[in-house]
Amino acid sequence: MGDWMALFEAALPVLLQGAAHTLLFALVAMVLGLALGFAVAMVRVAKLPVLSQLAAFYVSAMRGTPLLVQIFVIYYGLPGVGLELDPVPAGVLALTLNVAAYLSESLRGGIAGVAKGQWDAAFSLGFTWWQTMRHIIAPQALRLSVPSLSNSLISLIKDTSLVSVITVTELMLATKEVIAQTFQPLPLYLAAAAIYWALSALFERLQRHVENRLNLAHQR
């Protein structure tokens, strides 16, 4: 056990640096994915011709194929058609496109969860469709979608481990590099798992805080 503690102490700075990169990738992909997911959800809810079908196909393709395959297609496949990306942009793009598909469904479900009477009341007051969505429906849908959106972020934190396959330096690749130097896979993989768990627990706590604040504001 003493050897493990010494190993943890020596490896901790490298693992924490990798964890910081993991968190950064997850947050950037989450912000970009939320923007894209909202746009996709709006297109599908508005049932825009052609665009709605394209959006549905995109969501189906992203949710129906493994993230690892999507990473390979973007990083190794796109150069075949003249589009070559560095590992970090390729990893962020893959994570963004993947999580946006799930976020769009969460937001679409939240919109569907708002009572139809809210739409009727807004239209009776002279609101347009977009004004109703922006001022009345979207805020309520966001409150309903918080648990699902938070779950997607937690999953995204764990999914960042997959970008290590294209040499993006995040927690998993940092762990592998330390293992290559120390030949101690078990304690180091356990340490990496503990860090992922800690990050997930942190966002679970943040999720509960946001839910409580939104519920309190809704009750008022």
From TrEMBL:
**Compartments it resides in:** Cell inner membrane; Cell membrane
Q: What does this protein do?
A: Part of the binding-protein-dependent transport system for glutamine; probably responsible for the translocation of the substrate across the membrane.
Q: Where is the ABC transmembrane type-1 domain?
A: 19-207
Q: Which GO terms describe its cellular component?
A: ATP-binding cassette (ABC) transporter complex
State the name under which the record lists this protein: Putative glutamine transport system permease protein GlnP
Q: For this UniProt entry, what is the primary localization, expressed as one broad class?
A: membrane
Keywords, in A-Z order: Amino-acid transport, Cell membrane, Membrane, Transmembrane, Transmembrane helix, Transport
The residues that cross the membrane are 20-43, 55-78, 186-203
**Can you tell me which family this protein belongs to?**
Belongs to the binding-protein-dependent transport system permease family. HisMQ subfamily.
Per its UniProt record, what InterPro entries does this chain match?
Answer: AA_ABC_transptr_permease_3TM, ArtM/GltK/GlnP/TcyL/YhdX-like, MetI-like, MetI-like_sf
GO MF, one term, reads: L-cystine transmembrane transporter activity
| Record's bilayer topology term | Multi-pass membrane protein
